[in-house]
């Protein structure tokens, strides 16, 4: 963990960018390098155009690390799958505002499963839509790319929104995580932290770095 101003910044490596032929080893490399949690991107080819992984992959990596496994559900009708992901070993379940007509019900279903809950908003979604749910969640995730693919460019326009969500959290739910996801590298990480983020998801910049996972994570931490 790195202390930036008065906030503790956490890294959440996204295994979407890992080498899937040695996924377990990659999770353990991130763990040894001091990751605070592992980010698991679930895509259904419907809510987002891409298809990634499901509960079986989560179950396979569960015994390999004690780190919290954070599951980012980029799927339609997330309620149908909450129990499956909880049973497969998720510690927290993050659901999109945009994919859910009954977000309050979903968030409370996650709590009833004994898991931490998070709400996610896309780049074009305004910060104010989370106002009525922020008190109920453990995390707000501001997408800094359009969800669906790794390796995209950080959308700078989201920085103002990160600041607005920071203000809302400080006022309404101090202690709630403010996470950012998409295009986080050594250039964008300090901007996101300065804007108010305290958890950084990073896929490509950690797992595609030729120097290895530990060096990539150290390089990120050196920027804030
Ligand atoms: C995008 C996913 C991200 C993705 C980030 O839809 O939610 O978690 O893995 O990848 P990078 O860090 O490569 O942008
Ligand atoms: Zn994600």
Give an account of the 3D structure.
The chain has a single domain (2-221), classed as Aldolase class I (TIM Barrel, Alpha-Beta Barrel), CATH 3.20.20.70. 31% of the residues lie in helices and 21% in strands. It has 8 helices and 9 strands. A 9-stranded mixed β-sheet has the order 1-2-9-8-7-6-5-4-3. α2 runs parallel beside α3 (82-88). It is globular and about 45 Å long. The termini are close together. The structure holds D-xylitol-5-phosphate and zinc ion. Zinc ion binds next to β3.
What is the CATH C-level name? Answer: Alpha Beta
Number of strands: 9
CATH architect. name: Alpha-Beta Barrel
Poorly predicted residue ranges: none
Tell me the overall shape: globular
Class of secondary structure makeup? alpha/beta
Largest beta sheet, briefly?
9 strands, mixed
Average pLDDT taken over every residue: 97
Q: What ligands are attached or bound here?
A: D-xylitol-5-phosphate, zinc ion
User: What's the SSE pattern?
Assistant: EEHEHEHEHEEHEHEHH
Distance between the termini: 11 Å
Counting DSSP H or I runs of 4 or more residues, the number of helices is 8
Strand order of the largest sheet: 1-2-9-8-7-6-5-4-3
What Rg, in angstroms, do the CA atoms define?
16 Å
The CATH H-level superfamily is Aldolase class I
Reported by name, the CATH topology is: TIM Barrel
Quote the beta fraction: 15-25%
Task: Provide the helix percentage.
Answer: 25-40%
Total count of domains: 1
What's the arrangement of secondary structure elements?
Layout: E1 2-4, E2 7-13, H1 23-32, E3 38-43, H2 55-61, E4 69-74, H3 82-88, E5 92-96, H4 103-112, E6 116-121, E7 139-143, H5 159-172, E8 177-181, H6 188-195, E9 199-202, H7 204-207, H8 213-221
Parallel strand pairs: 2-9, 3-4, 4-5, 5-6, 6-7, 7-8, 8-9
Antiparallel strand pairs: 1-2
Bound molecules: D-xylitol-5-phosphate and zinc ion (ZN).
The site of D-xylitol-5-phosphate has 22 residues, from strand 3, strand 9 and helix 7.
């Amino acid at each position: 963990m790195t202390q930036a101003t008065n906030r503790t910044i956490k890294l959440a490596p996204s295994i979407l960018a890992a080498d899937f032929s040695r996924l377990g080893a990659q999770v353990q490399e991130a763990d040894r390098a001091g990751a605070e949690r592992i980010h698991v991107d679930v895509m259904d080819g419907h809510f987002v155009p891409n298809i990634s992984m499901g509960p079986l992959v989560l179950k396979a990596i569960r015994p390999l690390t004690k780190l919290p496994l954070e599951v980012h559900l980029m799927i339609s009708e997330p309620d149908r799958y909450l129990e499956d992901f909880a049973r497969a070993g998720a510690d927290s379940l993050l659901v999109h505002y945009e994919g859910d007509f009954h977000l309050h019900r979903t968030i409370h279903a996650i709590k009833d499963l004994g898991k931490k809950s998070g709400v996610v908003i896309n780049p074009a979604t305004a910060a104010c839509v989370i106002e009525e749910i922020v008190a109920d969640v453990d995390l707000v995730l501001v997408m800094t790319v359009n969800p669906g693919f790794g390796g995209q460019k950080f959308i700078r326009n989201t920085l103002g929104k990160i600041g607005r969500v920071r203000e809302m959290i400080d006022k309404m739910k101090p202690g709630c995580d403010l996470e950012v996801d998409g295009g986080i590298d050594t250039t964008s990480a300090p901007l996101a932290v300065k804007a108010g983020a305290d958890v950084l998801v990073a896929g490509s910049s950690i797992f595609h770095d030729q120097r290895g996972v530990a060096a990539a994570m150290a390089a990120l931490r050196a920027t804030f």
